[in-house]
Automatic annotation (TrEMBL):
Keywords: Electron transport, Heme, Iron, Metal-binding, Transport. GO terms for molecular function: electron transfer activity; heme binding; metal ion binding. It holds the Pfam family Cytochrom_C. It comes from Photobacterium profundum 3TCK. Residues 6-87 form the Cytochrome c domain. This is Hypothetical cytochrome c. The keyword Transport applies.
């Protein structure tokens, strides 16, 4: 990941658009969207990077790539840390 520290409070702020699909608590209301609460931090980060890089091209790939396009690595790491701490 290359990030030495993460900030879950910053992740909460940065994740404001994530909640529209993944829910404010990381549990998606729509069953076609994944629940991301409590997921492994590294997995979340790598998944977001894969969307950003166009490596995930499933149905939601283009939408996710657009959503993540303006975020930097630190932003992704903070968001991943935030959702990984949820129960």
């Amino acid at each position: 990941m290359g990030i030495t520290t993460t900030d879950t409070n910053a992740g909460k702020i940065k994740a404001y658009t994530c909640q529209f699909c993944h829910g404010s608590n990381g549990i998606a209301a729509n069953p076609t969207y994944p629940n991301i609460n409590g997921q492994n931090e590294q997995y979340l980060y790598q998944s977001m990077k894969a969307y950003q890089n166009g490596e995930r091209t499933n149905t939601m790939g283009k939408m996710m790539k657009q959503q993540l396009s303006s975020l930097k690595n630190q932003d992704l790491a903070d968001i991943a840390a935030y959702y990984s701490t949820m129960d």
